[in-house]
Write a structure and sequence with these properties.
The chain has 201 residues and is mainly alpha-helical. It has a single domain, classed as Serine Threonine Protein Phosphatase 5, Tetratricopeptide repeat (Alpha Horseshoe). It contains 8 helices and 2 strands. A two-stranded antiparallel sheet has the order 1-2. Strand 1 and strand 2 form a beta hairpin. Helix 2 packs antiparallel against helix 3, helix 4 runs parallel beside helix 6 and helix 5 runs antiparallel to helix 6. It is elongated, with a radius of gyration of 26 Å.
Length: 201
């Protein structure tokens, strides 16, 4: 079994004329891999048609569709048609999560974090606290920093479910990440007040 914790640096040589890659290593597996790579390169050079360009890093149509779904969901939320807003946010999430793997992961994380945070707000408007909590948690998992709304929404959902200790811990973690964000500070004071009241009762 090979040790996957270490690697051996092998010298590679690129022939300036043929662009073939070679190595002085005697590893049969490496020699076979390089032979296949060089054969593929020669084949691509002899094609009649030009080599297709690499894929576009970001599919502009998909980005536009996700943006349109988010805007439509926001409009549905503002008009208090929450089931429609939930459906549209869910469609946007599904589309964002199915982006090809070569697209930048940062883009996907930003899209997913925003859509989960907005869907959490919609669940909160419907008083579906458990669902709102799960979406806020997923939003923070996708993007921890610069996501104060999701931290606040998660804390509010936990608070509404009476899970005061979890809410205090969650909001405390949010404050560590977001700094002294005003809404989080106010929510933490509210939660601590309810915890203190519960101890007195």
């Amino acid at each position: 079994m090979e040790d996957t914790e270490s690697f051996t640096l092998l010298p590679l040589h690129l022939d300036p004329q043929s662009k073939a890659i070679s190595t002085p290593s005697t590893s049969k597996q490496l020699q076979d891999e390089l032979a296949a790579l060089n054969a593929l390169h020669r084949t691509l050079l002899t094609l009649d048609s030009p080599v297709p360009p690499p894929p576009v890093p970001v599919a502009p149509k998909r980005t536009a569709q996700i943006t349109k779904l988010r805007e439509s969901a926001n409009a549905a939320y503002r008009s208090a048609t929450y089931p429609s807003a939930l459906q549209l946010y869910s469609l946007g999430l599904d589309m964002a999560l199915k982006r090809p793997l070569w697209e930048p992961s940062g883009l996907v994380r930003d899209e997913v974090a925003g859509l989960y945070a907005n869907r959490a707000q919609t669940h909160m408007a419907m008083r579906s606290w458990a669902e709102g909590w799960k979406d806020a948690e997923a939003s923070v998992e996708a993007k921890k920093v610069g996501n104060a709304k999701a931290w606040w929404r998660g804390g509010r959902c936990l608070s509404e479910m009476g899970r005061w200790e979890e809410a205090r811990e969650w909001v405390g973690r949010g404050l560590e990440v977001e700094g002294r964000e005003g809404d989080l500070v106010a929510l933490l004071k509210e939660i601590e007040g309810k915890i203190a009241k519960g101890r007195l009762a």
